[in-house]
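User: For a reading group we're discussing how well predicted structures match intuition. Take UspA domain-containing protein. Before you show the prediction, I'll give you the sequence so everyone sees exactly what went in.
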Amino acid sequence: MLPEVNKILYCTDLSKNASYAFKYAVYLARQTGAEIHILKVVEELSSDERLTLQSYILNQNSREEFLHQRLNHARDQLQQRLDHFWEVIAPQEQAMRSKIIGCEVVEGYPTQTILKRSKELDCDLIVMGAHEKGWFHTLLGSVAKNVLRESRIPTLIVPRPEKVVTTKQATQKH
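Assistant: Thanks. Here is the predicted 3D structure of UspA domain-containing protein, as structure tokens, for the group to look at:
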């Protein structure tokens, strides 16, 4: 017998497809009664990036403020995306908002952070979106591949739709 899905870890990179993948997380939560924890990982700066930052921002407090603002910016973007999602979702789906039990933005290495948080939160399923093609997205796409390969719980990688689907259009389909 397959284990029940009681807690879903939805991971977002705030891309267009991430909103589409979130729709799947909400749908699965509705079908299973699961709760959803939202995670956005802001990738840690490499040692070269930190060295560059130190070269251009000599003041330690200013550097720390810059790093803090990176996380705040990601939090603001995530909140805007969630607000938009809930604004355009069908009225009968609004009750699913109560299934969101946590929403966090953390700095770390994406694959390791996603796997670690899924264990700490005792999640039964990871949901994340696939990425568009291109150099930048190829790098990011490796996160989904690595999570899929290393995860010990089921992981759903939602492919990007054939055409761009607005959240409202996608909601009306289900």
